[in-house]
Design a protein that fits this description.
- The chain is elongated, with a radius of gyration of 30 Å.
- By secondary structure, the protein is of the alpha+beta class.
- The strands form 3 sheets. It has a 5-stranded antiparallel β-sheet with strand order 1-2-4-5-3, sandwiched between helices.
- The chain has helices at 27-33, 64-77, 87-98, 110-118, 165-175, 207-218, 229-235, 252-261, 281-284, 295-324, 332-341, 349-369, 372-392, 398-411, 417-454, and strands spanning 40-46, 52-58, 104-107, 121-125, 132-136, 181-188, 194-201, 247-249, 264-268, 274-277, 457-458, 461-462.
- The chain has 3 domains: 27-136, no CATH class; 165-279, no CATH class; 293-458, no CATH class.
Length: 504
């Protein structure tokens, strides 16, 4: 029995059959593929004075107005179609524009025909022909573009990504109108056949980075891509870390700013998110509005976030270490106050801290899982009631409650919730180390954390960039202090952009 379930002997490889549907392209073959599918529709179409064609589509995947106006109406009204010499000439005439459709293609295999149907195309079969005419009549139903729900916008664009891939690429095109913007398309998932687009600016982004991202996407061989983890955990090689190695955002301006820096963007059909590679620690501590605020204010806020990161990590561990092993480090009056508050508490300080941290995590999960209308209320009321009741019942001391509350609130200042989650995991480890060996244990655990971060890479870029980067050129504006934007003349050197200069 392993940690993640019972150990199994290696079996047969993931079966792959290409083509998926062998055999000639016929109407009977398509009907066999979609048997027992109530949405599969077959409709005969008789040309005036000519042969009878067969139209096939999936109800709900096509827009019926397009089928009626762009396909059926021209077939019924264009009398010249019946005068074609043969079926091949008839198909050629329709493909060249006799039908009012911008997307018309000839298909010769069952695989192509089947995937066209599930993508919102309709198929037109001609009697005696081994090929069919495929016409796009998809619904293109999508959620309207709105402001981002999880990333607050103070000063900036409010057009967030939606679930439609082509809508998302059009949003990016509106922000970056450069013809050098390249959009590559790959299909991931055997059953879902999910479209994944790779975006970068040619002449600016490192070609090696683009090829590395494309190669890792091509290596994914799974059944379906229906969640973000289906992409994140496959293209990021370091899977034994809680820290995020791929930056995601639902804000289009933040995504386009990453492309302008020389990063590679990833958009997935069906997910209202955009990914940026590589993702380093400094990216998750910078808020999108930092470049919209004064450089002095942005610098102060950045320093505040780094301070809060240290607080949420170290404050509970330092309290446990000083109260348990190093009482001489506490001022006398404060030590007497802590002793007086702990007189009737039967538990050790380490146990108090761990219990309150667990209660904090439980309340946070309850607030996330409950409906939005009552989630925040339950979290606030639960925190007040449980904290006050625990102090009055002498289960925990007031000092422990204050320390845990400050550490928890400091964690909420992180712009990335994935980073905040990783910090919470390491917070428990630091408290456990401090309870065993005091400050020496906390220092050892902190050194292990730094070593862990130093060993991480995101697409060949050190995770501690720009603090641990061997730069071969000037590096400005990417550290703790944000310089005024007119003085930031260079793009980050860690991602090796093809063009370092970003302004004159």
């Amino acid at each position: 029995m392993g940690i993640f379930g019972p150990r199994r002997e290696p079996g047969e490889p993931h079966p792959r059959r290409e083509p998926r549907y062998p055999g000639p392209l016929t109407l009977a073959g398509v009907e066999e593929i979609f048997r027992d599918c109530v949405d599969f529709t077959k409709r005969p179409v008789a040309l005036e004075g000519g042969p009878t064609l067969t139209l096939c589509y999936l109800s709900g995947m096509v827009k019926m107005e397009r089928v009626s106006d762009y396909v059926l109406r021209p077939l019924a009204q264009d009398s010249s179609l019946a005068g074609c010499a043969d079926m091949g000439a008839l198909m050629k005439r329709m493909e060249d524009g006799a039908l009012y459709n911008l997307s018309a293609a000839e298909r010769t295999t069952l695989d192509q025909a089947a995937f066209d149907l599930v993508s919102g195309w309709c198929l037109l079969f001609f009697p005696g022909e081994s090929a069919v005419l495929s016409l796009f009549t998809g619904t293109e139903e999508k959620r309207s573009i709105s402001a981002p729900s999880n990333e607050t916008v103070l000063k900036g664009a409010r057009d967030a990504f939606v679930e439609s891939l082509r809508t998302n690429t059009s949003i990016v095109r509106r922000h970056i109108k450069a013809p050098e913007l390249r959009i590559r398309e790959q299909t991931v998932g055997r059953q879902s056949a999910t479209l994944v687009d790779i975006l970068y600016i040619e002449g600016l982004t490192d070609p090696a980075l683009v090829n590395r991202v494309a190669g890792r996407l091509a290596d994914i061989d799974i059944d379906a891509v229906l969640a973000t983890g289906n992409i994140e955990e496959y293209i990021v090689p370091a899977q034994r870390t809680p820290f995020p190695l791929l930056q995601y955002t639902e804000r289009s301006d933040r995504f386009c700013a990453g492309l302008a820096e020389g990063r590679v963007g990833i958009l997935i059909d069906g997910l209202p998110l955009g990914y940026l590679a590589p993702g380093v620690l400094g990216d998750f501590l910078r808020a999108p509005q930092d470049k919209s605020e004064s450089w002095m204010l942005a610098t102060v806020l950045t320093l505040l976030r780094y301070t809060c990161m240290l607080l949420t990590l170290l404050l509970p561990a330092l309290y446990v270490a000083m109260v348990t092993f190093h009482q001489e480090m506490i001022p006398t009056k404060l030590a007497l106050s802590i002793i007086a508050a702990k007189q009737d508490v039967p538990f050790r300080s380490a146990f108090e801290v761990i219990v309150l941290l667990l209660a904090f995590e439980i309340l946070q999960e309850a607030g996330l899982r409950l409906p939005q209308s009552i989630g925040q209320t339950v979290s606030i009321i639960g925190g007040l009631v449980v904290g006050s009741a625990a102090v009055e019942a002498k289960i925990v001391s007031p000092a422990v409650l204050i320390v845990v509350a400050v550490a928890g609130i400091a964690g909420y200042t992180m712009p990335s919730q994935e980073l905040a989650g990783a910090l919470r995991i390491w917070r428990f480890l630091l408290v456990a180390a401090a309870s065993l060996a005091g400050l020496f244990g906390a220092a050892a655990a902190l050194a292990a954390l730094v070593a862990h971060l130093a060993g991480l890479e995101s697409f060949g870029v050190s995770y501690l960039s720009p603090f641990a980067t061997e730069s071969d050129g000037p590096e400005q504006g990417s550290g703790l202090i944000r310089r005024p934007l007119p003085r930031v003349k260079w793009r980050p050197a860690a991602i090796h952009p093809a063009n370092r200069r970003n302004q004159r």
